[in-house]
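Quick question, first post here. What does this chain look like in 3D?
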Amino acid sequence: MPRLLLITFLNITILFALIACKSGNDNPGGSREKSEAGETALDSEPVEGDWLIYHLSAEPATLNPITATDAYEGIINNGKIYETLIERNNETLELDPLLAESWEISEDKLTYTFKIREGIKWHDGTPFTSEDVVFSYNTIMNPKVDSPQLRAYYQEIRDVKAIDDLTVEFTYAKPYFLALEFCGGMPIVPKHIFDKGDFNTNPAGRDPIGTGPYKFVRWTTGRDIVVDKNPDYWGEKPKINKIVFKIITDSTVSFQILKREELDVSGLTPIQWERQTNSPSFNENYDKLSYFTPNYSYIGWNSKRPYFADKQVRTALTHLVNRELILDKILYNLGAIVTNPFYINSPEYDKSIDPYPYDPQKAEELLKEADWIDHDGDGIRDKDGVKFAFEFLIPGGSETGEKIATILKEELDNMGIQMDIRKTEWAVFTTRLNERNFDAVTLAWSMGVESDPYQIWSSTQAEKGSNFIGFKNEQVDKLIEEARTEFDRDKRQELYRKFAEIIHEEQPYTFLFCRKSTVAVNKRFENVVVYPLGIDLLEWHVPLPLQMYSN
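> Answer (accepted):
Ran it through. Tokens below.
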């Protein structure tokens, strides 16, 4: 599913291990540190058994895949509890059958017909049919359902109908270059569970029933979410019996637990990666993985606030963000500075756009031109009676985000701008975003193999959707719409370059970095392959002598 998913700056480190898009077999920029004994163990025959204790650094708001807006739900659900009609192949990046055994595309690229495999059942034993697909689509498109982030991708569909129990047909009103991926990757929920009462508050949001290789066991708020291997799974069963997603929002606490070998997989902060994981005892127990994945972090300025409504002011603020210093001193160069909203290693990314430099003098000039000066002599800039004083919202547990906020606050203090840092837990944080109840935030987006900027940048998503900052630009809307119907990738890239130039000029975001994922994995796990987009724990197994848990 290539929709963009919301994550904290810190949690880039590990989220990509388990979100929907899977990866090919090369490893540009990736590395794996592995012991000689570990390399030898890779030759052992895979066996079933053991648990995997996975560090989840924020708690999802829901496990309902249709209403979820963050990537934490996807870590637990995608490919494990819930499945889609098709998936991306780890080796080739091509789309492969999953719940659907085959599909056909009409010559005019308006009709997509999927043939569903026989014998698939939901975890409660109810047969999976095309009616579940139709129900899920109709639910996504229902304006009463909290799924504006998904509706953005399906609005051009004219009709979805069940031809028979095992055949479903999607018909578009006009072509869309990601149609196959979104039809085949649409989240599917059981009709017989969700067609009762209010969909948004259905109990299955905390007790999901899917078709996948793992069945939901429990969700203990603030503690863990547990899934067990599904003994009746229709496809090839994974080797690991149980996955425990342990919720620990404090990176210092999670690191201490990791060192006690009470976590098997955990993201590492830059300082942990660079300075705190080089001891013989740590390297005896854990492999360290690093790799680039499609993501970018940013500071978002709410355009409805008077001080952020002017692009001169937004550009001035970008000139006050010392990205080179942050990359060097805080991120230990585990990333790259970005300037536009595409994955930096993709053809869509415009490398000709240079980042605005750190330049406080230029920032002051721009603020004066915009008439944000200290009119009343109290030390804080103001305009039309409005003080340049705002709140910088960061999610709790984001150590990197807090450090960036602290550096920015010092720069703004020197410039006569008051910035207060506000930390909130993830659920409160996302609620404030959805309600547009914030001034500025620092966050990151994860992306698919190819991305469509509509979800974040279209004016239609400004009031309710992922365009949290309320950015509106008619020319951008036109370019996005034109790109959606362009199947020639080279021509689409030209449209995206024009789009990226406008975004750079307007500076609705201060783009920060494409961060490297930095992850620790317990050495007892084998077949841990680093693909270009991450790792796939469904492939992992543990040799019998190394297994720690039984059931």
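The radius of gyration is 24 Å.
The chain is about 30% helix and 20% strand.
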